[in-house]
Write a structure and sequence with these properties.
Layout: H1 2-10, H2 14-39, H3 44-47, H4 50-70, H5 74-86, H6 92-119, H7 132-148, H8 153-176, H9 180-196, H10 202-215, H11 222-234, H12 241-249, H13 251-259, H14 265-279, H15 281-287, H16 299-310
């Protein structure tokens, strides 16, 4: 199912992929914006690390919109599309083209929300603001400075691997759910966990860091932002923490791990019933019908008998 989903994503035309990726970037940005709004104004000396939990719980809106409404997120495609290539459904060129288009669309969608719907609307204002806009500015500044200035390159890379491991698990488990509520429940806990632990999601950082630049957060510039994106998933293959975290930590081990799994009780019960049916006398009778049977009277025989009676 996962390989088929990845092939379906890669076989669409480039314009459909770009539009879908634009929506996914906007959805993740909406999740980041609501997370900032909800967790702002909470003093760490009073609340401790609970603001990060509130941030994670509300940020899940982004991936819920991506998976339920339907769109292309780079971190999800990094798991599904390469897996399809490994199964022989796609070529390496298809994988590179799809991931490049999706990353570009995600970036544009996140930038649009960051500039027009976060900063230009006044939901997040500058350092001279007052009221709620000042609180959201302080919360955004603390998040952006922590990601752009407070982490070493090695820490950012490892946080990207951990983040994308959990994101891929959320996508993987949502494929097993058959209801909308089941998909939301499968998504919620892994996404909440990676945000609460402070891991780095490349598309989320496409919103947080540019929004901080647009709002005038000091010391956060495009150089630090591009380096963060590079390390978090959009750089060279050797440093692509996102791609490694997705492909090596979930799809590859999950396949062999589940291939030899025993069936559940329902499967065992069905297998037992089928075995009983195969060995039952009725089944043997169906496979080997008896050679002797009572022949029915044919119409010609009945007419001849009637003629003899009349005579």
């Amino acid at each position: 199912m996962a390989a088929a989903a990845g092939a379906k994503k890669a076989h669409r035309t480039w314009d459909k992929v770009l539009v879908s990726a634009f929506l996914a970037g906007a959805y993740i940005a909406f999740g980041g914006l609501v997370a900032i709004s909800v967790s702002s104004g909470l003093d760490p000396e009073t609340w401790g690390t609970l603001p990060t939990l509130f941030t994670g719980a509300t940020f899940t809106l982004g991936l819920v919109l991506v998976l339920i409404a339907g769109s292309d997120l780079a971190t999800g495609n990094m798991a599904l599309v390469p897996l399809s290539a490994m199964r022989g459904k796609l070529g390496l060129g298809d994988v590179a083209k799809n991931l490049s288009l999706v990353l570009l669309g995600n970036l544009v969608g996140a930038l649009v929300v960051a500039y027009f719907l976060a900063v230009q609307t006044g939901v997040i204002d500058d350092a001279d603001a007052s009221g709620n806009a000042a609180l959201t500015y302080e919360r955004l500044a603390s998040i952006a400075e922590g990601k752009a200035l407070g982490e070493s390159a090695w820490q950012t890379f490892l946080r990207a691997v951990g983040c994308n491991w959990l994101v891929c698990l959320a996508v993987w488990m949502s494929l097993a759910a058959t209801t909308v509520s089941g998909k939301i429940l499968a998504i919620f806990f892994p996404i909440m966990a990676f945000v609460a632990m402070g891991f780095d999601h490349v598309v989320a950082n496409m919103f947080f860091l540019p929004a901080a630049i647009f709002a005038g957060v000091p010391d956060v510039g495009w150089g630090e932002t591009l380096l963060n994106w590079l390390l978090a998933g959009a750089g060279k293959p050797r440093r692509r923490g996102g791609l490694r975290g997705h492909l090596l930590l979930v799809p590859l081990p999950q396949g062999p791990a589940r291939r030899g799994a025993r069936p559940g009780r329902r499967g065992e019960r069905r297998a037992g019933l089928n075995a009983q049916r195969v060995g039952s006398p009725a089944a043997c009778h169906a496979r080997n019908p008896p050679t002797t049977s009572v022949a029915r009277d044919r119409p010609s025989d009945r007419s001849a008998s009637a003629a003899r009676l009349e005579v």
